Amino acid sequence: METILKVLLIEDNLIEIMKMKRTISLLELKHSIVEAKNGEEALHFLEDKSQLPDLILLDLNMPKINGIEFLSILKNSDDLKHIPTVILTTSDNQKDLQECYKIGVSGYVLKPLKYEDYVKKIEKVLAYWSINELKKY
Predict the structure, then answer these.
(1) What pLDDT is attached to residue 134?
(2) Fewer CB atoms near the end CB (10 Å): N or C, the chain?
(3) Which are the contacts of 22, defined by CB distance < 8 A and separation ≥ 6?
(4) Do the Cβ atoms of 60 and 91 come closer than 8 Å?
(5) pTM metric for this prediction
(6) Mean per-residue pLDDT of the chain
(7) Closest C-alpha among 36, 17, 35 to residue 25
(8) Is the dihedral of CA 73, 21, 109, 52 positive or negative?
(9) Domains (ranges, CATH) in the chain?
């Protein structure tokens, strides 16, 4: 059975946020998207344990706390480390990719340039996590 996901999108680029919302709408998905413009804002949101997301989509290149720093904080928190986190980035830097998996990321997805390719990737990522047996803590 597919689950309607609560997704936390951590992204500082307004165009990328709009692109994600447009994609969810285009695919007619019922998932709810909460945005945080940086890691600091996301950590503040995650303080409220009553509304933890089912999935985090995380950009790497952000001000204040970058994606790798945020991921480290998240995975070192007993209350938050269970939340699946997928990197959604333009960085194909192998060092970033290896570091993210070392820390405990659930996936690493490159944002394609063509919107149609972006839609296909987001559809697959969300489809996977909506049928995955997510553990509620």
Answers:
(1) 63
(2) N
(3) none
(4) yes
(5) 0.94
(6) 93
(7) 17
(8) positive
(9) 6-88+104-120 (3.40.50.2300)
Q: Does position 36 have pLDDT exceeding 90, yes or no? A: yes
Measured between alpha carbons, how far is residue 74 from residues 16, 22, 97 in Å? 22, 28, 17
The DSSP secondary structure of 60-96, one letter per residue, reads SS-SSS-HHHHHHHHHT-TTTTTS-EEEEES---HHH
Residue 3's pLDDT is 82
Q: What is the pLDDT of residues 105-119, one digit of tens each?
A: 999 999 999 999 999
Angstrom distance (rounded) from CA 8 to CA 17: 11
Residue whose C-alpha is closest to residue 57's, from 92, 12, 27? 12
Specify the 3-state DSSP secondary structure of 30: coil
Distance in angstroms (rounded) separating the CA atoms of residues 134 and 137: 9
